[in-house]
Amino acid sequence: MTIDERIQALTESLELLSSLHRDLEEQTTARFQETAARFADLGQFINSLAHIAEAHEHRIDRLEGQ
Fold it and tell me: What pLDDT score was predicted for residue 66?
């Protein structure tokens, strides 16, 4: 194998690694965005449950006060 062939093989390997790295970065970014969206949804759900619990607490307090 000549030096030019070795350089060519190294160049191709580097290009492949770069491509794999870019793909992995894109996948990681997409997963992070999905996770962030799920956490936002979860936060809204928890807030909804807190409002429901508060409403029930007020209702129970009114019923107990009668």
Answer: 75
